[in-house]
Structure formats: structure tokens, C-alpha cells
């Protein structure tokens, strides 16, 4: 069985990171999991963006969710299966549903920007690791840098808004929040170019 990663809402909010993570899952780098609650929260956060017409933002957010569910029909963990576990979770109360869903989804790792909400003592009994997206992407890159580079190049070629239409633009969009991953990717690209 492939490595399973449960994606928390916070890593699905920003389009570039979401696209990178889902593109990697699409290429079977890992199996993706999320819960209905995570997707509902993602839609709410995306619809609440400032400066965008609320109806348009909500429609766009619902479209993103629908496309995710269509692309990954096995990713959603059954809420009726994990709801009974929530009360037994000992991590941060706002993210207990995430840990419970990750357990039922047989996740190996929870990818979240809120690492502190998932202390080792709460996750270790279930053999679930917790990684911020920068660390997660570094691990994936370290395992297969050529595949990850191809996935990133393919993603960039499918985008329609410059500067994200080339790999350097996509990496620049990730730079501020995922600097270690971007540094690894740029170093690999330099070595590949020099070869």
C-alpha cells in the first residue's frame, strides 16, 4: 500500500501549494486523504476571501471542492466512522476531528501548518507522523527528485496566469512559506542544467 498523507485545511487554502500537493498525489507519489469537515472548512475559508464578490467566491470554492472529490474519489474519510473517535483524541480540541479522521483513513502522516496542534504524545500511539508542508515536500523530493521535478514542470505548463506558467514562477510562489523545499528543487535544477 502506498504512503498515505492526510491533508489538513490549512495546506489546501493556497492554490499553488494545493495544486502541488494534489499533483503529487495524482502521480501516485502518495495517497491523499481528507475529511468532509476539512473540505467544508476549506470552502468556507476560500469563500471568505476579501475583495472578491461573496457569491463568486463561494461558487469558486465549491467548484474547487467538487474537482478535488472527482479527481480523488477515495480520499474522503467517512465521517460516521471517525466521529466516535473525536472525544478520545488528546490533541488540540479544534483539530481532534483531523486526528480521528487520519486514524480511520490509515494515514502515515498529517500534513499541516498547525504542527503544534498535534503533539507527539497524541499521535504516536496511532503511528501517525505530523509534518509541515515544507518538510513533507522535502521528504517527497528527497525520495524521487526527478519525478517531483517533472510533476512541478507539468503543473506549471498547465497554469494560465504568469508568472506561474513556468517552473521558476511556481517555485517563487512557494518560496516564502516553503523555503527549504524550494532550495532543494532549485539546487537539483541547477545540477541538472549543468550536467
**C-alpha end-to-end distance:** 35 Å
CATH homologous superfamily classification of the largest domain = 5'-nuclease
Number of helices: 10
Globular, elongated, flat, extended or rod-shaped: what is the shape? globular
Main β-sheet, in a few words?
4 strands, parallel
Share of residues in helices: 55-70%
Give the integer mean of the pLDDT values: 93
CATH domain fold name of the largest domain: Rossmann fold
Q: How large a portion of the residues is in β-strands, by DSSP E?
A: 5-15%
**Helix-strand topology string:** EHEHHHHEHEHHHH
Q: Could you name the CATH class of the largest domain?
A: Alpha Beta
Helices and strands in order:
Layout lengths: L3 E4 L7 H12 L4 E3 L2 H12 L6 H18 L7 H4 L13 H9 L4 E3 L8 H4 L5 E3 L1 H11 L1 H14 L8 H9 L3 H16 L1
Parallel strand pairs: 1-2, 1-3, 3-4
Helix pairs in contact: 1-8, 2-3, 7-8, 7-10, 9-10
Amino acid at each position: 500500500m502506498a504512503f498515505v498523507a492526510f491533508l489538513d485545511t490549512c495546506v489546501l487554502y493556497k492554490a499553488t501549494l494545493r495544486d502541488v500537493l494534489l499533483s503529487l498525489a495524482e502521480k501516485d507519489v502518495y495517497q491523499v486523504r481528507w475529511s468532509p469537515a476539512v473540505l467544508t472548512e476549506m470552502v468556507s475559508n476560500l469563500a471568505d476571501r476579501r475583495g472578491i464578490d461573496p457569491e463568486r467566491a463561494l461558487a469558486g470554492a465549491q467548484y474547487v471542492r467538487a474537482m478535488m472529490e472527482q479527481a480523488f474519489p477515495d480520499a474522503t474519510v467517512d465521517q460516521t466512522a471517525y466521529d466516535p473517535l473525536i472525544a478520545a483524541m488528546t490533541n488540540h480540541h479544534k483539530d481532534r476531528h483531523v486526528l480521528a479522521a487520519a486514524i480511520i483513513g490509515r494515514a502515515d502522516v498529517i500534513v499541516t501548518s498547525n504542527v503544534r496542534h498535534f503533539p507527539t504524545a497524541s499521535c504516536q500511539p496511532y503511528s501517525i507522523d505530523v509534518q509541515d508542508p515544507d518538510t513533507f515536500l522535502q521528504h517527497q523530493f528527497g525520495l524521487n527528485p526527478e519525478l517531483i521535478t517533472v510533476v512541478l514542470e507539468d503543473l506549471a505548463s498547465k497554469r494560465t496566469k504568469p508568472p506561474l506558467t513556468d517552473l521558476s514562477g511556481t517555485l517563487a510562489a512557494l518560496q516564502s512559506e516553503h523555503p527549504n523545499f524550494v532550495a532543494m528543487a532549485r539546487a537539483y535544477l541547477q545540477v541538472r542544467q549543468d550536467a
